[in-house]
Amino acid sequence: MNENQLRELLDAVRTSRMSLDDAVSALKMLPFEDLGYARLDLHRALRNGFPEVVFCLGKQTEQIVEIMTRLARGDDPVLATRASPEVFEAVKRSLPEAEYNKLGRTIVFQRKPLPKRGGKILVISAGTADIPVAEEAAVTADVMGNPVDRLYDVGVAGLHRLLADLERVQSAAVLIVVAGMEGALPSVVGGLVRQPVIAVPTSVGYGASFGGIAALLGMLNSCASGVTVVNIDNGFGAGYAASLMNCLTGK
Amino acid sequence: MNENQLRELLDAVRTSRMSLDDAVSALKMLPFEDLGYARLDLHRALRNGFPEVVFCLGKQTEQIVEIMTRLARGDDPVLATRASPEVFEAVKRSLPEAEYNKLGRTIVFQRKPLPKRGGKILVISAGTADIPVAEEAAVTADVMGNPVDRLYDVGVAGLHRLLADLERVQSAAVLIVVAGMEGALPSVVGGLVRQPVIAVPTSVGYGASFGGIAALLGMLNSCASGVTVVNIDNGFGAGYAASLMNCLTGK
Amino acid sequence: MNENQLRELLDAVRTSRMSLDDAVSALKMLPFEDLGYARLDLHRALRNGFPEVVFCLGKQTEQIVEIMTRLARGDDPVLATRASPEVFEAVKRSLPEAEYNKLGRTIVFQRKPLPKRGGKILVISAGTADIPVAEEAAVTADVMGNPVDRLYDVGVAGLHRLLADLERVQSAAVLIVVAGMEGALPSVVGGLVRQPVIAVPTSVGYGASFGGIAALLGMLNSCASGVTVVNIDNGFGAGYAASLMNCLTGK
Amino acid sequence: MNENQLRELLDAVRTSRMSLDDAVSALKMLPFEDLGYARLDLHRALRNGFPEVVFCLGKQTEQIVEIMTRLARGDDPVLATRASPEVFEAVKRSLPEAEYNKLGRTIVFQRKPLPKRGGKILVISAGTADIPVAEEAAVTADVMGNPVDRLYDVGVAGLHRLLADLERVQSAAVLIVVAGMEGALPSVVGGLVRQPVIAVPTSVGYGASFGGIAALLGMLNSCASGVTVVNIDNGFGAGYAASLMNCLTGK
Amino acid sequence: MNENQLRELLDAVRTSRMSLDDAVSALKMLPFEDLGYARLDLHRALRNGFPEVVFCLGKQTEQIVEIMTRLARGDDPVLATRASPEVFEAVKRSLPEAEYNKLGRTIVFQRKPLPKRGGKILVISAGTADIPVAEEAAVTADVMGNPVDRLYDVGVAGLHRLLADLERVQSAAVLIVVAGMEGALPSVVGGLVRQPVIAVPTSVGYGASFGGIAALLGMLNSCASGVTVVNIDNGFGAGYAASLMNCLTGK
Amino acid sequence: MNENQLRELLDAVRTSRMSLDDAVSALKMLPFEDLGYARLDLHRALRNGFPEVVFCLGKQTEQIVEIMTRLARGDDPVLATRASPEVFEAVKRSLPEAEYNKLGRTIVFQRKPLPKRGGKILVISAGTADIPVAEEAAVTADVMGNPVDRLYDVGVAGLHRLLADLERVQSAAVLIVVAGMEGALPSVVGGLVRQPVIAVPTSVGYGASFGGIAALLGMLNSCASGVTVVNIDNGFGAGYAASLMNCLTGK
Amino acid sequence: MNENQLRELLDAVRTSRMSLDDAVSALKMLPFEDLGYARLDLHRALRNGFPEVVFCLGKQTEQIVEIMTRLARGDDPVLATRASPEVFEAVKRSLPEAEYNKLGRTIVFQRKPLPKRGGKILVISAGTADIPVAEEAAVTADVMGNPVDRLYDVGVAGLHRLLADLERVQSAAVLIVVAGMEGALPSVVGGLVRQPVIAVPTSVGYGASFGGIAALLGMLNSCASGVTVVNIDNGFGAGYAASLMNCLTGK
Amino acid sequence: MNENQLRELLDAVRTSRMSLDDAVSALKMLPFEDLGYARLDLHRALRNGFPEVVFCLGKQTEQIVEIMTRLARGDDPVLATRASPEVFEAVKRSLPEAEYNKLGRTIVFQRKPLPKRGGKILVISAGTADIPVAEEAAVTADVMGNPVDRLYDVGVAGLHRLLADLERVQSAAVLIVVAGMEGALPSVVGGLVRQPVIAVPTSVGYGASFGGIAALLGMLNSCASGVTVVNIDNGFGAGYAASLMNCLTGK
After folding, report:
1. How far apart are CA H31 and CA H45, in angstroms?
2. Is the distance from CB of B127 to CB of B200 less than 8 angstroms?
3. How many angstroms separate the CA atoms of H94 and H109, rounded?
4. What does the alpha-carbon distance between residue A82 and residue A227 come to, in Å, rounded to a whole number?
5. Taking CB atoms and an 8 Å limit, are A23 and D10 in contact across chains?
6. C118 neighbors C141 (Cβ within 8 angstroms)
7. What are the chain B neighbours of C224 within 8 Å (beta carbons)?
């Protein structure tokens, strides 16, 4: 409910087209649907630019199916993340057109894809084991209407692999850099470009990687200016933020 | 040295205008100046879009003065962060036009400010004690050529203070949200807008705030999509990243 | 054994109705029953206002059944928490009237429920995945004789979902707010009410949530005054504390 | 602005006593005063039951004096915490009636104290070094209109010191238990009473006390049901929460 | 090899009963047996007062069987800790007289028990779930020749359960106090006795117990003087240390 | 108040020599003196074997002087730890015979030293910087009536320095081993003796020593059986515990 | 591409044997092969002295087989670490000559072993449970062409087991010391030798070993000069670094 | 005392040139000098290849002067680290030839420098603020007889600064890489060379650098094989280890 709608409502009160009690109620009537265990934020696309996304961890399969089915009634694409193959099978029974990205563990349902915006989002991963998180980011950015490019396995211990694609790197509008272990890649990439770099630490590693803490701290302390960071393994968040940034292009 | 310059150099070799030895040397000649204790990255503005910034912590006053003086020979603005009043006094003797922001502890030297870009960067702080970090962000964004707006002391325990300025909040191109203690403000702001939100945890707090860890973790775990995070107290990094994002506007 | 009983005992000694040795023994005779592996605190209802609760983690099924059976001989309700379905099946064989809350993993056995006290306890959860902990709190408060209301999935990234029920929120006597991830909801709720708020961090989240540490720290650093905190996932403790607070109502 | 006020406003619009534009503005006019660096929440007493409290850490002395002077224009008591003697001297020049608690580092300004409510709040400290935090809690509870009792230096390694005052302990409406080092006192107290216990960990200790972490963890893991916890050294928060709980008495 | 043996060896050299080469070798001949993957310290009983104990975690079953069989050739009792039922089954096939303590997960093989020393070692546990660790301590102390007494489920939230057995508590020579969660029991016990108290934190708990860290820190910060601490869940270490202390009795 | 005194009291009640009210009061009359900010545990020597010790950190100088003066009225030695030279100067004005150990920061007041017990307590330190903590332990053990020996600067990187004094090491009744950095010395010493070893981690070190955490963890994980641990820098606790253990000698 | 190759390329341009476009491309042509999910660094042996090693964790079995098969086309040995038996079975089907070290979980494929260098690398382990990590180090050093010796189960609690082999210890060129728990062995070894010591902490232990953190911190704080450390359980890294050091021998 | 000396001693016993008692004593006579608070390891040069180094932190100035004076009686160079200017002034009064490195805080006393060995040790630092630690490493390596080269301020965010000196980097025998913040430089350097790389994390940084933890973890998790790590800010340890490695050159 924006200011114009508020004016209209108040005008209706002023001209007695609406009673006081109805106005009070209307001011409280909010754009969500209550399923009991979840309050679906159906107008989120208006407020945040993209519909609510279903984060599957900690939700029961029936809940996920019901939420996705309800969201699928709208026109916008529906995205579910951290979806196991079993969850996908259940969703597919209700939404046969849903598609699954096995590596990135995402489910996408869309009647027709959103039109692509101009700037390219490049997803870079340091190692092969970081690819699942990178794919989650790439799918998220793609379904939100962004052109997406991928550059995988270009860790800093073999710099020439990255430098070989310097042109692709420097021509992206927004970069997502995914790395586990010491998480040094965003610093190196950040030093090579003048576009925003979103760093995604992953839990790839062992011992003193502490489930991604080493990479997270490395990225937060990056000596390259302009690097921002999301949660460990949060490919979705990186893709979403990159899309918001890319939306600025051309405005 | 970009691809065109490389082509010219190779062409000079091909047409024998340049000897082999000179070409080898030229390919190694790099755009920095070696002061012994520091290698000034003079072409950084070309590569990263803004000249090197002087981070004063851990540097000696004479080093800071020499570096700033050297950078000031160029046309670009020069920014120093984490500068004590003593450092500023020393810098001022060499660069009398330098200006000091007492709260944000920044020194700016600029012959003429960069022209402003279209999108507005809004800096929001949760509490009065977070203002120094917010100012560092605001000065950085300003000196890099962005219109900057400020909204201070709007913590989540008194939501109406934030909601009173909802329109300002929703009309910014990029938002920087600075908060200590539990660091909840970026989640609330992130839920209200469709633009990129950069969260800056501060070390404001005591006890279990652990010097900003509580705020940092809160922001990394934000339930609002699209929030990215920088290091604790890193106002500069937030301002720099916001500027890179704002640069996408209108491209 | 309270002061009156002590006086009676001493009076019995004074009037020689009780021997010295018996008095010494009586002073040592304590209101618990020793099962070898456990000392049941049978008079706890007198001392603490509610009988001992059976925390099932780390106890063997036979032990749980024996303890519950023994406690069930009294008049008070018996509550077991963190009970798996298998434990419930075993308990049910001995106490067929026992009831199981699948989400909250609680077993309740009560001949007749305690009469309800006046103030309402409201249990709020930030997300769908926080519901198991919220249910543990709700069941605990309910079995201890409190009217209980529930408000689920009202996280801070969609404030309107919470504000839509502001009246319910502000009319509760005590509020329990359950949240994982960044744990910001108690700060927002605490800023809206003038009643005690008990914050329950949950282990819901991933990466830098560190099993609930992020939410715990967020709640401990809440900028809203009057918020107190219990252990991660400790729905029972929140329900119990809320009941103690609610007992003050009308005194 | 409550529902009644909203109804009145809407009625004024309906009957054309107020223009649309004025109504929109009024709905945005919020009960705070903007000092630039701080937004004073002047209606907080209505919403939260007690006026805003001035937390002095991280604020400049002039800011504190201005904020307190502004708040002192109302009828409610004004409380400042974490105030150094220097801050108090400055405040006293503007508000000569202000009083300072040296141990608890609090400043109180009140034209006349609030009337006392019925239930007693008992503040218990484990050691002599915990007294500053205990005093902050006691002053806060006192200025908010609660009868306050104190019981200091009754740590668990000499249980008889606590048991000697068992009657005082068991007759309080709400208990605040302040302890550093291992923080075990709230568990022992919680096992002796049937009233709410608020545990306050302090940073008293050395080595593996880690600035209060040991006490904090001990209290969060308390085996006594009904114990809730506030931040390390947060005497104010404990006093405030105890007052909210005590407000339930007699309702 | 003690000083007397050294003198004898040197005397043999002096009187030419032993060659130089043999002497050099003898000085290097050390009292262990090399199994390749393990060097059995067969003279440990002489040096440390009790033979080497087999810690089963991380060893393969065949290795455990071979080591125990080899140690069993001597006269001393053989103890294995952290032994699964499967390991016990395998050991039993080679050493049919071996005995298994199911709760404490220990295997004991002894031709005849060591004679008991005078002082009693009392093992106290806070809760039912702490019993496995308490049993490991009790079995260790028992097999090393100490009279052992047990007092279980006497946590600090119900002090009367402990005080009921105060006499038993105060008559022990050495006390082992086992507790998880907040680990407060050793402080309370330590305040009641004048004998050494060994505190054993356990990993019993959840959330902010962090696998025993809360209990460990609580014990390290105990306000009761004379409490020393061993590793989390290290019942064996506590029993062993208690035995060394008890050996001082009567010397 | 022991069992005999209880019997006498009850007998006085039985024979009407004491009224009921007096008996109730007497049962509550406890052996401490209340100074307001401190409750002096005057009978501690009876209960714990040594009078209360004054831990100076966090106490005001006047408080320390008053407490020591009050304790000095008894016959037992009085010990204060963590005492600055300033505190000592103040104490000396009231108790001129008090003695100060500059390295160990202890104050001792004793009319006549306690008679020495038979077993020797050996205090070993790894490095020169660990000596202050070692001295605190040595003074504590000495004032409690134990023969004390010292062996300093025998860290594990130069084993021969320790082995040179093997005989002294092996002839002690109890050993206190003080070490910072990696804290390996207790493991080595523990492997050489059959007496109890108390390990004291110190905050000596830098970087990843984390103020003594590295040494603390090293000692808790010692591969030498029979090692128990006290808090970081807790020389007093080690000396006190060693004394309790040494008391067993000859019983 | 080294300087000579660069000169040749530039000469070809100068003499027009190569076009400008081809030169630009050639400068970008880099020595890796892109498999999509991995960029094989085929010239790594030239640059780093040993071909790329396959770290199996987080890679799919098919990926591992394809990568190893591709690397096996060269002349150099191929090493895979952290390989499960299942992975080995799959690799064996493609490379029947591959060999598996069950304890160290390594796969080695080599047509003919590299010739051995002169200096010996000695791998020492503290306990039996540390052997898997020690074997990973030993296999790595062996396949890289180093003579390797092993000395297992010589923990510091039984020093004589280590001292018995002092000569072997002191004659190695480089030492790798593997230890869990308190990780003290590298300090002791480092004090006995004048060669480089590489310390490898392992996750062997429980409770306060925190998955190897205790050992890691112990080693980083080693009081023996010249000890360097690798990640927890990183036997491969230790073997690799030892080999690089051993390469210096004889240069 | 080596094997030959042992043989001679035994031979003296055999031929009765030495009494038994003298032999026992001689075997215990060890090569250190006991100053009471320190045991100087005078034969360390024989055992470890370099005399004992004086670590000044935690030592009193007089102790440092006495230790250095005593060590200066030998022929070897004497090195003191972490020496304040005040300490140097005191040392200089006793040893006027002593030299001070202000940045690296080292004192060196040497009658004549050790002859230089062949291989070069290159010390690289990421930033200007890391230079003090780098200098400590460089001075240590220099005084131990190694040719030392320095390359400062070549952080990964400006790769060209490092690549400009690739030849110097690749021609060193051993590399020491010093970096704070995210500590990524050793990974990049390690990927470019085939020599051993010693990584030194520094405490340079703020916020989530946590005093060097971020850099430490980054280096421990380096994706470049062959990197080993020392403690935070441990320039001395890196220089010492590098020297031990360089000693292998030419053997």
Report:
1. 11
2. no
3. 11
4. 25
5. yes
6. no
7. 156-157
CA dihedral of H61, H64, H70, H72, whole degrees rounded to 10: -110
**Which residues neighbour A80 within 8 Å (Cβ) at sequence distance 6 or greater?**
A53, A54, A55, A56, A64, A68, A87, A91, A106, A107, A108
Q: Cα–Cα distance between H8 and E7 in angstroms, integer?
A: 17
pLDDT along chain C (251 residues), means of 10: 61 76 57 62 55 87 92 87 97 96 95 86 94 97 95 84 82 96 93 93 94 96 93 97 91 66
Q: How do residues A35-57 score in pLDDT, each as one tens digit?
A: 666 666 555 554 455 767 899 99
For tokens 């062992």, the residue is A206
Q: What residues does A123 pair with on adjacent strands? A: A150, A176
Q: Say yes or no: B16 contacts chain G, CB-CB below 8 A.
A: yes
Distances (CA, A) of E41 to D30, F192, G157: 79, 13, 10
Q: Would an 8 Å CB–CB cutoff place B213 in contact with chain D?
A: no
Q: Which residues have C-beta within 8 Å of that of residue A18, sequence separation ≥ 6?
A: A9, A12, A26
Q: Which of G21, D16, H191 is nearest to A158 (CA)?
A: H191
pLDDT in tens, D153-202: 888 887 777 877 888 898 999 999 999 999 999 999 998 888 999 999 99
- Rounded Cα–Cα distance for residues F188 and D87 (Å): 54
φ/ψ of residue G100, rounded to 5: -120, 130
For helices E3-14 and E20-28, the axis angle rounded to 10 degrees is 170
Q: Does H245 touch chain B (CB under 8 A)?
A: no
**H or E segment to which residue B172 belongs:** none
The identity of residue C53, as a single letter, is V
Entry pTM: 0.89
Closest among F116, F80, F122, F117 to F99, alpha carbons compared: F80
Please give the single-letter amino acid code of residue A97.
Answer: E
State the DSSP string of H58-125. Answer: TS-HHHHHHHHHHHTTSSS-EEEES--HHHHHHHHHH-TT-EEETTTTEEEE-SSPPPPPSSPEEEEE
Taking CB atoms and an 8 Å limit, are A153 and G39 in contact across chains?
yes
* Sign of the Cα pseudo-torsion (F228, F231, F233, F238, in order): negative
Q: How would you class E73 by CB atoms within 10 Å of its CB: exposed for 0-12, middle for 13-18, buried for 19 or more?
A: exposed
How far does the CA of residue G141 sit from the closest CA of chain B (Å)? 36
Chain F touches chain E, with at least 3 Cβ pairs below 8 Å, answer yes
Distance CA F153, CA F131 (A): 8
Torsion over CA of H6, H7, H12 and H15, rounded to 10 degrees?
Answer: 150
What is the C-alpha to C-alpha distance for residues G162 and C187, in angstroms, rounded to an integer? 59
Query: Which of D20, D21, D25 to mutate: most A Cβ within 10 Å?
Result: D20
- How many other C-beta atoms can be found within 10 angstroms of the C-beta atom of residue E28? 14
Min Cα distance B161 → chain C (Å) is 11
The beta-carbon neighbor of D154 closest among F28, F39, F232 is F39
C100 pairs with which residues across the strands? C107
* CA distance to C187, F215, H44, H53, H240, per residue, from H49 (Å): 62, 27, 7, 12, 10
Q: Say if G57 is an interface residue toward chain H (CB within 8 Å).
A: no
C-beta separation of G193 from G215 below 8 A: no
Whole-complex ipTM: 0.86
Asked if residues E138 and E123 have their Cβ atoms less than 8 Å apart, the reply is yes
- For every residue of E6-48, DSSP letters joined together read HHHHHHHHHTTSS-HHHHHHHHH--SEEE-SS-EEETTHHHHH
Buried b (16+ CB within 10 A) or exposed e, C24-63: eeebeebbbeeeebbbbbbbbbebbbbbbbbbbebbeeeb
Using the Cβ of G17 and the Cβ atoms of chain A, whether some distance falls under 8 Å is answered with no
Helices (H), chain E: 3-14, 20-28, 44-48, 61-71, 85-94, 131-143, 159-163, 166-171, 185-190, 213-220, 235-246
Matching residue, tokens 């108790």: F95
